[in-house]
Amino acid sequence: MPPPCPWDLHGEGLNGGRVAWVGYDGRAQPALYATTGPLLFRSADDGASWQRWAESVTPLQKLAFVPDDPKQILAISGSGLLESRDGGLTFASKALSGFGLTDVLVHPAAPRRVFAGTLAAGIFRSVDGGDAWSAANVGVPLSLTKALAGSSGDAGVVVAAIEMLNESLGAANVGALLRTTDGGAHWATVLDGITWGMDVTFCDATTAYAAVRRGLAKSEDAGATWTIVPGFGVMDVSDIAVSADCQRIYASVYAVGLFRSEDGGDTAVGPLLDGFAIEPQRFNADAIAIDPADSDHVFVANYGGLYETGDAGESWALTSVGQGIDAVSIASSPDAPGVVWLSSYRGGPVAPRRGGRRGWARVPSLALPRDFLYGVWVNPSDGDEVYAGAIPELWRSRDGGRTFENLDVRGNVLGMAWLDDGRALAVTQTRGILRLDAPDGAFAQSNGDLAPWPTAVGNVLDTRSVLAVGGRSPSSGPTAPGSCAARTAVTAG
User: Which of the residues 39, 212, 439, 493 could staple to 194 if both were Cys, CB 3.0 to 4.6 A apart?
Assistant: First the structure.
């Protein structure tokens, strides 16, 4: 028996994967950090290069930097509050274990005063740098704390953006901005009636902005009063970053794209999507970071990866930060064994890719969705005939991926196989098995005795995988002469 073939990593070009947060550390040794799952990336040259800096035992969600200690970093995670004393190289559990932490704030005017927001447990406060904590919930309703921000001119002032919860701890589709002037001892509602409080930030001691889902709010009195700026109308603003002069604003608008204002929110331009491998209807930013020295230079973290612009958002490029895209399937054809295709899901840039020893490259077809793909399959008899399944349709190329056509096949295609006579089978999540009898024909249901079952959305037949036994799968050889061609489908339920 020959020895097994060795495996080696072949991921060049498969950058991406969700990046949860990005931010600048402007202390004694300026640096830029980004979190993705349990990994922490660091750049010491303003994003020109990145180093995989550390790995935590739990996913890192956001960092906070302690101004009077250049090596101390706090982080929220799935296991509570973590602390690093060596500049992020290692983290250890510090406090609030078991709480669903959603944000952490080291107060800019009082570095020993730290606040932590939670899911349904209110707001917690520490006055000794995070060693001891107490609830600070007077005036805080049952809610999810989305963001916390403090005024650099007043150690008592903190603003919290919250989303109300119902008794079942589900979203109540209403939010508010809360404010304390006594360091968290008491909170008062300063803006209500908003859809959700999503994000809040101070750009100087008295000027603050808040993303309130149905617009962008501005305060010029350290959060005491708020008005909705006209430039964003009723857009679903979900995340913001504001320059130090309070004039340039970058705002993520849910399911639309990124917008920019040059005048403090009075007007805005966008969406600025050139270079994002994300469909606009699924766009959302998890974090935005502006270079303190150059507001044209910006980073955006989202489910597709970490993107960078040097021209104020007019064009974007994917950085090397991330755990890699979420690869779903690979396929090749005996007719073209040197070409390997890959599909990926929620990992941007996400599309089938042609591979080989030269690495991977995104297929530049404007017809394909840019992010969510269930699978890729290649006709075993024709390496130029490539299929890509997405939500909820199926695309086909007959020229090796240069162009794709939408076949108008609904139902989320999850697998394909070919019979010896050239007919193609496709399994779907709602319509069962489909069969294509002729290249220029249309897919038709071929479920035989498979019966659908009732669900809340109607009768469905959820099939997940198909194997042509004696036929040809996308990576198999031909059937032996005289053998029978059977097919097997795996269903859910």
Answer: 212
Pick from 299, 232, 223: nearest CA to 46? 299
**DSSP one-letter code for 59:** -
CATH topology identical between 21-318 and 327-491: yes
pLDDT for the residue numbered 239: 96
CA–CA dist 35, 390 (Å, integer): 28
Cα separation of 263 and 404, whole Å?
42
Closest CA to 400 of 440, 347, 340, 358: 340
- CA–CA distance, 62 with 123 (Å, rounded to integer): 16
pLDDT in tens, 141-165: 999 999 999 999 999 999 999 999 9
CATH superfamily of 21-318: YVTN repeat-like/Quinoprotein amine dehydrogenase (2.130.10.10)
**Looking at this protein, which amino acid is placed at residue 235?**
M
- Are 274 and 8 spatial neighbours (Cβ–Cβ below 8 Å)? no
| 363's tokens | 């297929």
Three-state helix/strand/coil letters over 372-422: CEEEEEECCCCCCCEEEEECCCEEEECCCCCCCEECCCCCCEEEEEECCCC
Least confident stretch, 260-269, 304-313, 327-336, 356-365:
356-365
- Give strand pairing partners of 77: 60, 80
Q: How far apart are CA 403 and CA 426, in angstroms?
A: 21
Q: Where is average pLDDT lowest: 66-70, 99-103, 342-346, 402-406?
A: 342-346
CA atoms within 13 A on the CB side of 378: 29
Partners of 325 in the β-ladder: none
Which residues contact residue 456 at a Cβ distance below 8 angstroms, ignoring those fewer than 6 apart? none
Q: Which residues is 260 bridged to in the sheet?
A: 250, 269
Q: How many residues does the chain have?
A: 493
Beta strands in 220-261 (DSSP E): 227-228, 237-242, 249-253, 257-261
Q: How many CB atoms lie within 10 A of CB 167?
A: 7
CATH architecture of 327-491: 7 Propeller (2.130)
One-letter amino acid for residue 135 of the chain: A
- What angle is formed at CA 409 by the lines to CA 403 and CA 412, rounded to 5 degrees? 100
Domain boundaries defined on the chain: 21-318, 327-491
